[in-house]
Request: fold
Amino acid sequence: MILPLATERLRPSADRPDGLAMGLIGHLSLARGFRGGERQAQLLIQELAARGVHQRLIARGGEPLAARASAIDQLDVCETAGSLLAAARACRGCALVHVHDGRSVHAAALARALYGVPYVITRRVDNPIRNNLLTRRAYRGAAAIAVLSGAIDAQVKALDAALVCQRIPDATSPHRCDEHGLERLRERYAGRFVVGHIGALDHSHKGQRDIFAAAQELAATHPAVTFVLLGSGVDGAAFRALAAQQSNVELAGQVDNVGDYLVLFDAFVFPSLHEGMGSTLLDAMAFALPIVATSVGGIVDLIRDGQNGILIEPSRPDALRDAVARLHDDPALARRLGDAGRRVAQDHSPGVMADRYLDLYRTVFDNQMATTQA
Reply:
C-alpha cells in the first residue's frame, strides 16, 4: 500500500501475532536505483513481515525499492521527495527507524531531534565516511550500528574510535531457475565453460576491465572459456564497445532470470577494487559456483583462499586469467571450492539475517527501557 507523507503514528492491530511489543519499525532509504543494499533491505522487510512485524518503508519516490516493496504484507510504503526534512517527517510515529543508506543517516538524526525516534544504522560500504561534525554527531546519536564486515567496521572506527558496531552480514537472495529458460541458455552456450559476473558495470568499483584483459589472453589458450556479465552501469557503453571486439565476452544487461544464469555458470569472478562485502558472492556460493575474487574489503570475510574460493590481488588481470584457467583445467578443484562455498551460504539465509536484526532491535528497546526506568 502506497501512502502519502505520513505524520500520524501507525500502530499494530491488537490481534497481530508478532509477540514483539516493538511498535512500528521504520526502514529509511533515500538511495537511487536498485543495487545490493536495496535488495538486502527488501529481503529484510519481507522476512520481518513474515514474522508479523508491522513496518513502514520510507523511500525516495519513483525509485525501484518503493515499487518492489509495495506488495509486502503489513508494510506501509511512504514515498518522499528525497529531502532530509520530508524523510524525517515520515519517520514520525515509528518506534524505531532502521537506516539503510548513507544519506538517510542525517534524516534519521533529524527525526530523532524532532520526534525522539531512535534509529539504527546499517553501514554497507567500505569507503571512508565523510568526517565532519554533523556526520560524527549522527553516528554517535544512533542507538546501534550494524556493519557487514570488518573492513566497514574499520571505516566507522576511523570516524570515531569510540563507536561500537555489531557485525550482521548480508543474506543470499532467493533466485529461482526456470527450466525452459535454462535450457535455452544451455543450448546457446553449449560446449562453453561459462564464467559469470554480476554487478554494476563500474570499473572504479567492480574492476571489470580486468575481466576483459584476462579474457583477451585466455582466448588463445582456453578458447572454450566465455565470460558473461550481468548488470548495467556507468561503464556500460564502454564495455559494450570492448565486448564487440572480443568474441569471448558478452554483456547480458539487466536480467530478471538471474537464477537461470547462476545455474548455467561454471565459475564466478568478482575482481572488485573495493567492496564492503559483496552480497552477490553469497548468491554464487548458494549455487555452488567456484569463485575467483579479489582480496579487498569485506570479501576476505567470506572467501578463504584455497578453501572456498581463490583470492587474487586487485588490478591483476594476469592473476585472474591464471585462476580461471585453473578452474577450467581442474574440475575436481572447482567442485571442491563450490561445495565449500555452498556450506558458507547456508549460514547467510534471509531468515538468519532477520533474526540478527530482531535481536538488535530488542537490545535497543531493552536499553531504552532500562534508561527510562533509571
Notes: The first strand starts at residue 2 and ends at 3. Confidence is low (pLDDT under 50) at residues 1-19.
